[in-house]
Amino acid sequence: MSMTQQGEKNLLEARLGDAVTKRERGEIAHLSFLTPREKREAERLLQQWGLRERAFFFGGYPEAERVCLFLLPDYLVDCLPAPLSDCELDTVKELLGETLCEAVSPLAISGSGFRKLTHRDFLGSVLGLGLERDALGDVALQNEYEAVLFCPRSLIPFFKTHLERVGNDAVRVREYQMGPSFTDGRKYQRITDTVASARLDCVVAALCNLSREAAQTAIRTGAVEVEYEACERPDLALEPPTTVSVRGFGRFILRSFDGETRKGRLRLCADRLI
Fold first, then answer.
1. How many domains does the chain have?
2. Burial classification of residue 3, based on how many CB atoms lie within 10 Å of its CB (0-12 exposed, 13-18 middle, 19 or more buried)
């Protein structure tokens, strides 16, 4: 682990410790948008502290990558009809009420319809207003002209006033009502292949069209992450579904190993995020 990553973990642990103190005072505590890596580390710490069943992660929709963490005091958890992890999303949302809406609100950003806009266009223009990335949640493309941004409710007036253009296109900003037409905007390329085993080096070689030796080098030099954590073990056995990121090649979701060929190789099925 690099010094930067260790510093980030220490900072997250300190922030989480402050949230735990607030929770113990009987208040709902929350941390602003966490990356997938930070979420996993927060889950590990909360499990270690015996508080995992007091925590709720939410980023605006069930498949959100960037999520806020909410720590619930005991009296609220005791109101639930089941353990927090088993409760329906609507039940928890009703319990948290305005606290959830204040932290995570959807905002639609719509172009003129004459210029195609990308995820990079939307995110670049939003960050160009001087905001830090960790202040914001996902940017979900709805089509080539519109995206939904998840952010704290307090930022909505700021965006309505200052976000006038995305790329070279004029845009309008409005509050968004989540509905069945919402999409996370992610697109995938299907990858199928056969591998000798479920080892990480075999899978990386297949996903990136590399030799086994080149895949091992990428792993040992820290270019590969498994579930958003750096992994330098070529022999790690993967169990689908698993997210694998390879620097320079992108992010992949290992979906399944669908049986064996006559030669005893595993049939790999995965998706590459494009």
1. 3
2. exposed
